Amino acid sequence: MVTRHRAAVTYSIRPSDLALHLFDVSVTVALPAANGQVFILPAWIPGSYMIREFARNIVKISAQSGGKAVRLKKLDKHSWRAAACRGPLLVQYQVYAWDLSVRSAHLDQTHGFFNGTSVFLRVQGQEHGQHVVEILPPQGDAYAKWRVATALPELKAKRYGFGSYVAGDYDALIDHPVEMGEFELIPFRAHGVPHEMVITGRVPNLDKARLAADLTKICEAQIALFEPVTKRAPVSRYVFLTLAVGDGYGGLEHRASTALICARADLPVKGQTEMSEAYRGFLGLCSHEYFHTWHVKRIKPAAFAPYDLQQENYTPLLWLFEGFTSYYDDLILVRSGLINEAAYLKLLAKTLNGVLRVSGRLKQSVAESSFDAWTKYYRQDENAPNAVVSYYAKGALVALLLDLSIRAETKGRKSLDDVMRALWRRYGRDFYSDGSKAGRGVTEAELEALFDDITGLSLQPMLDRAVKGTQDLPLEAVLQQFGVSLNSNNKPRSVALAVRTAREGNDCKIASVFENGVAHQAGLSAGDVLVALDGIRVTATNLETLLSRYRTGDVVSVHAFRRDELMAFTALLKPDTAPQLVLEAQPKPAAALRLRTAWLRKRG
Ligand code: ZN
Predict the structure, then answer these.
(1) Which of 72, 173, 362, 511 could be a cystine partner for 500, CB 3.0 to 4.6 Å?
(2) Ligand 1 centroid – CA 212 distance (Å)
(3) How many C-beta neighbours within 10 Å does residue 257 have?
(4) Which pLDDT score is estimated for 436?
(5) Neighbours of 110 (CB within 10 A)
(6) 516-519, Cβ contacts within 8 angstroms, sequence gap of 24 or more
(7) Domains of the chain, with CATH numbers?
(8) First CA to last CA across the chain, in angstroms?
(9) What SS3 class is residue 545?
(10) CA 442 → CA 203, 462, 466, distances in Å?
């Protein structure tokens, strides 16, 4: 049974000590559980599949009822039980907020940001009632101009004002991140629905008009993809919360907003009109997170419906939710006219080269990589290139393979878009409604049947090999049917050690050793600090220059420190094996050109 109380759970949150990065948080429970109310903070945040133990950041916590202290017993690393009392029960605590990422919370004199998963204790047993939160301003004249940005609906607050906001349940409360500070506000409409880009951080001469125009194209293209007839957006309002810093990149999706972090240099400058790689990357990030509004926030794997936020939620389907989203993020840029066909094929080639670079692709399938995201993809160590395949990058190539195969085999009558729309109709559109289809995720068996059902083809064997196998995908043949040739660029190959390096002061440290490369065969290891090549000092920046004097077959001596011991190695030099494939569009034949045009043409 679910008992609904109106505003049975009320929170307040206030930036209390900005220099110490502390939020003061309280939760009031009108009717606490008779045998002692349990409070729990999530261990992870949806969209970022790693146990983060947010309760580590609760600095002090206490409870009271009717002015009298109530004992709180800690049950485990993120749960407390209050002694039985009649209520209302008030729990007060401080949260340390100093994680400059989209996943947690951050507070200082320049702004405040939080995800509910970091700050709002779950009141066990009352998750399904209405949750109200009062967002209070920091004290002091210096913060008089601070405003609030969130997609959470206002209860008693003006838009962008401090005051109370409301969520239908706990799941909604923690799915609406909140930004506060003096931010830039860029409003625009996509198919009639209000959208806002909020930018915190100093960004001189920001071209707001260009940003609004480009984002409108991206959002409208996605709305039209999922709802080609009604052009109905899945939300009544959407907010991009962006923090611009010196160097950073990341995003996390939510049901009606996204939290982004980017480099200031990624954002467009007034007067510039060309599409820089940095700005294209930022638009790709916006496109990616916006696509998740349908795909993973509403169409979900069964394992996420509902989430269990206290432990790992295993699913073999992240290749579908992250990989397909990664396929569509750039595809939307070309379909909305923001980049051209040549630029798009370059991006595809980059993804393909990235996957082919790592031998981990021959050992782990994307289904396995999805399942083990918690311990492998999200916790990559120096051995990751030799052990892990990215369900983002290879998942995007699986989407490409399926899309092109469907288009070619149905002579353009069907495409992956039809599969996405079917997923949307069956599992996504009514996910947050009260109807019979609400809250249901897609199972693996349903997904496997759906591809063939929607396309009328027998895609099952291909899908099985692509998702559960470790062979390279047969992309060359299918690209050929679209008049896209897959060739190696014929630039002469210089010799290379086949390592990833990291700068450490003025030293060059090996970050990863690629399996079967020169360094591996010479016995070098990740963590080794390169000292000299044939007796000449290696610095943080000169490795390539030193190697450029050698040819394939040359033998060099390499000195390196492992821990504090100097070691000598002999390396037989070989050409760089990093794949350098290029995708080139051919003007003929006409049938291929027709297919390619239908795939990449500008919509709308
Ligand atoms: Zn994603």
Answers:
(1) 511
(2) 22
(3) 29
(4) 82
(5) 13
(6) 516/359, 517/574, 517/577, 518/571, 518/572, 518/573, 518/574, 519/571
(7) 9-181 (2.60.40.3650), 182-275 (3.30.2010), 294-484 (1.10.390.10), 495-575 (2.30.42.10)
(8) 48
(9) helix
(10) 42, 20, 19
Q: How far is the CA of 512 from the centre of ligand 1 (A)?
A: 25
What does the pLDDT look like over 155-164, one tens digit per residue?
Answer: 999 999 999 9
Q: Can you give the pLDDT at residue 137?
A: 98
pLDDT band, residue 604 (cuts 50/70/90):
low
Joined tokens for residue 173: 């409360």
Q: Which of 201, 220, 248 is nearest to 337 (CA)?
A: 220
> 350: CA distance to ligand 1 center in Å?
18
In one-letter notation, the amino acid at residue 596 is: R
Report whether 552 contacts 573 (CB < 8 A).
Answer: yes
> What is the per-residue pLDDT for 603?
80
Strands 495-496 and 257-263: unpaired
Interval between CA 319 and ligand 1 midpoint (Å) = 10
| Rounded distance between C-alpha atoms, residue 591 and residue 597, angstroms | 10
DSSP 413-471: S--HHHHHHHHIIIIITTTTSSSTTTT-PBPHHHHHHHHHHHHSS--HHHHHHHHH--S
Q: Strands 499-504, 507-513: parallel, antiparallel or unpaired by DSSP?
A: antiparallel
44 Cα: distance to centroid of ligand 1 (angstroms): 16
Q: Name, in order, each residue with C-beta under 8 angstroms of 434's C-beta and a sequence gap of 6 or more.
A: none
User: Quick check: helix, strand or coil at residue 346?
Assistant: helix
475's enclosing H/E stretch is: helix 475-480
**pLDDT tens for each residue of 404-422:** 999 999 999 999 999 999 9
CA 162 to ligand 1 centroid distance, Å? 30
Residue 399: which of 318, 456, 337 has the closest Cα? 318
Strand-pair partners of 95: 23, 58
What is the whole-number distance in angstroms between the Cα of residue 318 and the centre of ligand 1? 9
Q: Quickly state the pLDDT bin for 4 (edges 50, 70, 90).
A: very low
The residue among 216, 220, 188, 210 whose CA lies nearest residue 603 is 220
- Which of 490, 479, 501 lies closest to 580, judged by CA? 490
Q: Do the Cβ atoms of 54 and 78 come closer than 8 Å?
A: yes
Place of tokens 């110490």: 20
pLDDT at 435 (0 to 100):
83
pTM exceeds 0.90 for this model: yes
The Cα–Cα gap between 334 and 346 comes to: 12
Q: Are 176 and 116 in contact (CB under 8 A)?
A: yes
What contacts 349, CB < 8 A, 6 or more positions away?
581, 582, 583
Six-digit token string for 469: 């196998």
Pairing of strands 58-65, 38-40: unpaired
DSSP string of 209-273, one letter each residue: HHHHHHHHHHHHHHHHHH-TTT---SSS-EEEEEEEESS-EEEEE-SSEEEEEEEGGGSPBTT--
DSSP assignment, residue 526? Answer: T
Distance 98 CA to ligand 1 centre (A): 23
